[in-house]
Give the backbone structure.
Amino acid sequence: MLRATGVSRSYGDDTVFRDLTIDVDAGEVVAVIGPSGVGKTTLLRTLALSLEPDEGRVKLDGTDPWTADEAERLVLRRRVGMVFQEASLFAGTVARNVEYGLRVRRSWSERIASLFRLSGAADAVRESLDVVGLTDKTDQPVDSLSGGEAQRVSFARALAYDPDVLLLDEPTSDLDPRNTAVIEDAVGEASDRGIGVVVATHDMHQAERVADRVAVLLDDGITEVGPTAEIFEDPADERTRKFISGELVY
Amino acid sequence: MPLEPVAQLAPALLDGGAGPAASLLGVSFREGYVGSVIAVSLYVSLTAVALSTLISVPAAVAIGLTEFPGKGFVKSVVNTGMGFPSVVVGLVVLFAVSNQGPLGSLELIFTREAMIMSQFVLATPPITAISLAAVSGVDDGVRDAARVLGGTRVDVALVVIKEARYGIATAVLAGFGRAISEVGSVLIVGGNITSADGISKTRTLTTAIQLEARQGRYETAMVLGAVLVALVLTVNAVVVRFGDRGVTG
Amino acid sequence: MPIQRRTFVAALGAGTIASTAGCSSTGGTGGDGSDGSGGNGTADGTPSVAGETLTLTTTTSTYDTGLLDEIHTDFEEMYGVTVDAVAQGTGAALETARNGDSDIVMVHARGLEDEFMRNGYGINRRDLMFNDFVIVGPADDPAGIEGTGSATEALTTVAEAEATFVSRGDNSGTHTKELNLWEAAGTDPGGDWYQETGTGMGEALNAANQQGAYTLSDRGTFISQRSEIDLTILVQGPIEGGPEILANPYGVMAVNPGVHENANYDLAMAYIGWITSPGVQNAISEYQVNGEQLFFPEAVSEDPDFRQYVPEGWSSDDSDA
């Protein structure tokens, strides 16, 4: 469904990755593992169709946003959701945050009309807060949330508009085990709904727990992609093996 | 203290002009005079600040969210504009609206519209500069989230404005403070005019104070000064209140 | 009393507008009130200038004494117009008119008025009223000028004693008069004792009061402020028998519509006709502050005074006309 082929990206003289190929299908969970600073975030932004690759192609269902016009690119971008390492919530209530993606997809007349309506949260908002177990926080201002709760809201915010692809960038790196478990369960729920999920993580155990397939990003490219069990038990690539066994320390 | 003059002003603002001379803090004024001066001050300053905000905030968001060559230069020009002397602005606007100037045919000299023009010029740099600082201070992650979750440029700008609302409110207040407390340019382009029955046409609180001081009536000038301070405090309080309500809403 | 005056002035209005209408049609130089507002009354007698605005630039001394607010109501009601009086000081008032930003000027510096007329900006000048200047200072009079019959001698004495003197320094009519006096005295003021404030008369009086200094003031402003300051008159002006050089005559002039075609010439001439009429001249003489008369009318006279219409020293033989 979402496929990057031979993509390269650099900032100035600094190559982040080169000739990299990765894809995710509906309902599939792909983990991108690799040490911090290896370019996972840049890769996810490229997959989110918000960063144009220097070389190569990113296509969603066969359409390349970077050869499409701006309106078409927006339509494609809106089929992707993303959760950041920091929750990056907007000022306001939990419901306003979760509703954001739905709101920006409405017409201006509807949006202006909704300003004068005192309606409760939409069904989609309540459902996606239910996935992360925060329905009781719907009308709370976000600055009253704990870090873990904020990240769960961030997840619900990306899920609410029912994207085809969900990208998670180190979503649990700052979280305690309980909140981590909630997020990981929510990833499972998303894939059950047929959403293709890409999780970038430096936590190999998390990758083992949630992923159907694993891509190993080392230095400036993907060394190996394959089914999770295969990568962890029988890596074909020497550098992958060293990274997984902990011999290769970054 | 600030409430007292405001409370006493309310009838003066509403009263058409019948009855004896009004008294304020023990100093007597002609009926309707102080009210009309306040009305002109507020009309001119609020209009100028409103127009300026309509230009400045989008400009600040556009500058803050875009990378372009010469951005640093643009910022320094805006910051320099904050310190622009008001009399110089007054002179420039005077040349523009004077009969001999490019806008002479509009006959704007000694009108409130000319005063609005000069205050617009004065208020725009501080509103733009402080808004720009506030916009630049908005977390990159929030901006990214607004975009990646499907927002258009306008959506991102709206999110950024909401995040920066306190800074923008401060910017608008700074612009209002500069406009309403400014005396040099409004005196030059407005002419400090009242009609013969004491109703202000282009007299503001500041030029009224200047007029009283010119005649050595410092006590009267102080009373008007107190009214000006009360007015600024009131507007600030209203904006802060409004801003607080915006957070939860 | 004010009501009585108002009816008197109103009765006079019809005659005034008739006379100024004649003035604008015969005295026009081609610029004929381009806004279509001829000074002629309509059939029912309502003047067609109604609703227009007359911009008058004038000096702080006429404005700040409250005289204009007192008398303008009559003019506004009579013609159904608005007078925007802008108090600027003589130099600035003339400059504003020079730029075509006012319709009429009322100032008190004959030299500057003459220059304004010679340059073609002002026409139809009339002597309006006068008061006088006085030299004021602290009651203990450190330089000892009290009783000096000559203003120039008094200033020379101040300069020799290096007693503090506050100058307006703002190109106002009073400042111009002060500079003329120094010139006549043959003294070039300067040094620590001579302070230019660059402010209005009221502030200058306050500055002089606080420093126990001397200054030149118009009588009107001094009277209106006398109760708040400790200064006293040391050299009288001609109103109280002092030297003629301290006379302070006010003139009024229309802006030349031949130079600035947007000038509201008809209304300006109506104003000149009105303010030089016996009724308003009487009202000026009756205007009092703190129980004292501030201005002495001089527009109404049995004898002709042709000098008021032209720059001083001008004669029809001059080649610069």
